[in-house]
Amino acid sequence: MIRIDIHKKLHGSHGEMNLDIKLNIKKGEFVALMGESGSGKTTLLRVLAGLEKASGSILVENVAWLGEQTLATQNRQIGFVFQDYALFDNMTVEENLLFVNDDKVLAAKLLEITELTALASRNVQGLSGGQKQRVSLCRAMMNRPKLLLMDEPLSALDPKMRSKLKNEILTMHKEFGCTTVMVSHEPSEMYQLSSRVIMLSQGKVVEDDSPKALLLKPSMGTIVDMRHKSSTSSAIVSVGQQLIEISLTPEEALTFSIGDSIEVNSSFQPS
Amino acid sequence: MFDLDFAPFLLSFKLAGITTLLLFVFSLPLAWYLSQSTSKSKPILEAITALPIVLPPSVLGFYILIVLSPNSAVGGFFEDLFGVKLVFSFTGLVVASCFYSLPFMVQPLQSGFESLNKHMLEASYLAGKSKLQTVLKVALPNIKPSLMTALIITFAHTVGEFGVVLMVGGSIPGETKVASVAIYEMVEVMEYGKAHIYSGLMVLMSFIVLLSVYIFNHKQKKIGIFS
Questions:
Q1: CA A174 to chain centre
Q2: pLDDT tens figures, A37-51
Q3: Sheet holding A204-209, edge to edge
Q4: Alpha helices of B116-178 — where are they, by DSSP H?
Q5: What is the pTM for the complete model shown?
Q6: What is the distance between the alpha carbons of residues B125 and A99, in angstroms, rounded to a whole number?
């Protein structure tokens, strides 16, 4: 269990702002952090990692990381995946992993999961973005972290690489079961990976729920027109920026009129 | 042919070698601190570090002479305790050269450290590595061009020093008479032939040193782009 209760003054793009976060995260949980830029997501990760100072307390499995005494970053046993990979450019793929922990068996296993075994002795500077981020993920797992933190790990990658890495993150989470906090902007990513979504705004937690409850919201629409043909009726509904035509049964056609607000759920139909 | 004595050259290289080594050890923590610090006192430290670039060597030499002389606290301390004379001696030259060449070691290292991706250093801390391990195993290997520039320019700059050496060391053959001072004396007594050979050698060596720095850095950049 991780208990977080932190406060920090931030100088964001909207002037001064207070980061006030109170959260409990269960062991093994996969938490997605969302919120507009400048809402304090990255700062929260960095405070958890001990890379930035804050007041308050962080308690991880009854060990105080922050409180009267601060536990140094070095001693927190954290895995961190940066958006810009942040690999050690002077080392090969394998050396990047062994630098964290000289465990060749674990390194080989991680490289196998991410299909990087063939690149083990290559210098990391020559790798593609997707390969670099997979090395970064492996490196983060090398100290068998108590807490895995990922700051938009997929946002710099193309869609194909994204879905590949998404699967690898899932595999790793199943394999190692470590508590994970991931910053993301992508609803599909959060839905597929996380078991809990937390939304920050202006440095505060404003939503905290399951991905289904938080992300899968029905769209509201307004009926702008009704069409009646001899045997069928339909309503033209405005949803967001789009107009859609919805066919109605004769009974429904009698219940609705122009200007009504309705909930729209869509189902797939082969076209 | 001329009766050439290469002792001044050897002395110049010995001085430059020792100075470079000492300065590297002392400058590394300073350059690292300056690159990572956000303290308000940083500009003051930076200005002090850069002073030897703008000060006339005679001013620097004058103060070093005053501070190192046996009549001063520092000079007296060393003479009483270790029996080391700090003025008009090789040891004194090393101390003076360290001050004189300090910015040439600190500045390239500092700007190299500043250019590093901060996340890379943080990744090293997250991996449980101390600051010292991070500097030696991550930071330094990733700023090779800056490191080469710092080492070679410091060495070359120390070989080329004249004013400070003359003031602090004088011209004791085999002890403080380095190449630049030797050339000055040859010109004074109108031994132009010898002065030509010495000066020509200095030009040639300096050129080779600078050329090798630029070729190395050029190659490093290429590796960075195409790998």
A1: 16
A2: 888 999 999 999 999
A3: A78-81, A147-151, A179-183, A30-34, A196-201, A204-209
A4: 118-126, 131-134, 144-159, 163-169
A5: 0.83
A6: 11
CA dihedral A227, A230, A231, A236 (to 10 degrees): -10
Nearest CB partner across the interface for A73, out of B126, B141, B224: B126
CB-based contact B119 A88, cutoff 8 Å: no
Contact B34, B42 (CB under 8 A): yes
User: What radius of gyration, in Å, describes the C-alpha atoms of chain A?
Assistant: 23
> Apex CA B65: angle with CA B63 and CA B66, to 5°?
65
Predicted confidence (pLDDT) per residue in B24-82, tens digit: 999 999 999 999 999 999 999 999 999 999 999 999 999 999 998 888 888 888 888 88
Residue B107's DSSP bridge partners are none
User: Cα distance from A85 to chain B (closest Cα, Å)?
Assistant: 8
Size (chain A), residues? 271
The token duo for B208 is 């080779």
Nearest to B216 by CA among B144, B143, B151, B140: B144
Say what percent of chain A tops pLDDT 70. Answer: 97
Q: Which single residue is written with the structure tokens 């060749």?
A: A104
Q: How many CB pairs under 8 A join A and B?
A: 59
Question: What value, to the nearest 5°, has the Cα angle with vertex B211 and ends B210 and B212?
Answer: 90
**Average pLDDT score over chain A:** 90
CA closest to A98 among chain B residues: B127
